[in-house]
Amino acid sequence: MSKVRKNLILLMVVDCIIIAACTALSFVLYANGDLSKIGTSSAILFGLFSIALSVISFYFGSMYKRVWQFASIGEMLLIFRSATVGMGLAYVVTLIMKDLYVPLSVAINSYLLVMLGVGASRFAIRLLKDRYVKQDLSGFKKTLIIGAGSCGVVVARELMSNVNSNLLAVGFIDDDPVKLHQSVVGLPVLGNRSHIQEVVMQHEITEIIIALPSASRKEISEVISTCKQTNANMKIIPHINDLLEGKISMKSLRNVEVEDLLGRDPVILESDGIKDYIEGKVVLVTGAGGSIGSELCRQIISFNPGQLLLLGHGENSIYQIHRELSPRGIKLIPVIADVQDRARMEDVFRKHRPQVVFHAAAHKHVPLMEENPSEAIKNNVFGTRNVADLADQYGSHKFVLVSTDKAVNPTSIMGTTKRIAEMYIQCLAKQSKTSFSAVRFGNVLGSRGSVIPLFKEQIAKGGPVTVTHPEMIRYFMTIPEASRLVLQAGAYAMGGEIFILDMGEPVKIADLARDLIKLSGLEPNVDIMIEYTGIRTGEKLYEELLLNEEGMTDTKHDRIFIGRPVNFDRENIELELRRLERILGQDKEMIQELLSRIVPTYSGGKREASKVLVPSS
Q1: 351: Cα within 13 Å, side-chain hemisphere
Q2: 193, 299, 366, 378: least CB-packed within 10 angstroms?
Q3: CA 298 to the chain's CA centroid
Q4: Which pTM was predicted?
Q5: Are 361 and 312 in contact (CB under 8 A)?
Q6: In this structure, is the dihedral angle defined by the CA atoms of residues 28, 29, 30 and 32, taken in order, positive or negative?
Q7: Could you give phi then psi for residue 95, rounded to 5 degrees?
């Protein structure tokens, strides 16, 4: 016999006993204890009818299909309805039968006692599960819940009722002074945020669950920073905006990630402006299989483009993003193409006539591009030139270049090639009907080549974690955040702008490494060592987002700014690009020399800047 069937029979037997006892007690109360006044046959028949009809009502009312360890108000209402139907039918039968007399007061008392008795039996199950199932504390991890609101209550109830969980809820932390030292679902509110370290030590807490899904990212970051001072492991219920359909449950629980430490609130988009230039349009995303390119596609698709061209050089990444987005109901066209291949790109533009182009295809790895300068130039400079020229030739409405903060006063070949790409589209913008613009931002967490996956891999192997320099700082934002702001900047673009995204506060890479080690439940320089390897070729200690001559003006969005367009002579740039094309594959120093002529602020080669490329007034 299955466990489910055994439980069903047990509950039915318990209900029969309760109903029999309740009806008998009602007759005894009616007779004031004088059993001779009770009609024995009437009492027995009414009891049998009550048992039979109530159990049938309970069965068809789904009372035997409930998990009573989670009983709440819904189950109380179910008991009320089922008992009302069952006991009501039993009394109706007694009225129909001529030889059977049951006083109305007996029927009412029986009904009330049955509801009370059955309800008590069911909620006793929950009480036993909540209170006594984890009396043996050995093997359980003492858990502190941050937040005694509705989400914290959900977490606490599930921890108390889940017999398979090894987490033991000890209490709450909450900043509401009204809740301080009060009890919530039977657990004490032990203090506010400032008491976290004290509470963890006093109660020997080993696990912390942050249940603040409606709090701002900044508040979450501050809570995490406080919890980091303890040795407890941390988990978090994600922000309500990140939850599927906004539903909170223990299934949503995840580890605290480094993104949570940034404390950056979600990007609020002006959807109408984005919709105006994307809805119903043919949109091309180059580098669609990459970190930024694929996220751009995910964001774009929610604005209902007429067609979305997923263009990339790697077939596997394009296959993956195409398969992911196919169920969304938008016409997707996967295109395997190299932006360096002018003929192939022209074929794509001729066939599909994209009206909006997001150019995210680029080589971005600084040290690798130092070793392969010609490849950086071919892809980042001439690939951009191909796509931009074709956008101009085939009348695209908008062209948005995804750029980088490494293009500002570059010390690397990669940064210099991206700066040349910016300069080229600014030249085109002056004479084209296409609106050309660039969006410049710093590092994105979790992207290919990011330090985060590298650090995680090194931690998983037991260290050491390698950092180039203790004072190395970088700007960071998440991939979705960067992609949304790129879309928003596209709505503001009139032609020639370089948009700069608000990257927040710069982060020390060494601090990031320490945070990741701590989030892994380990101690920096005790469990996992941090080693400094020295700055690599092309790197600099800090990044900039703006050239001196660009200045900066506001937009309607508080996270997006505009660098003032700098004028360049297109003929001179075209001349230098032809020279650059001729020396591809040549000696690295020769390439660096010419890059310095094109981008005078490039400090990687000899600084003999060409006067013709100094910004004109």
Answers
A1: 11
A2: 193
A3: 14
A4: 0.65
A5: yes
A6: positive
A7: -70, -35
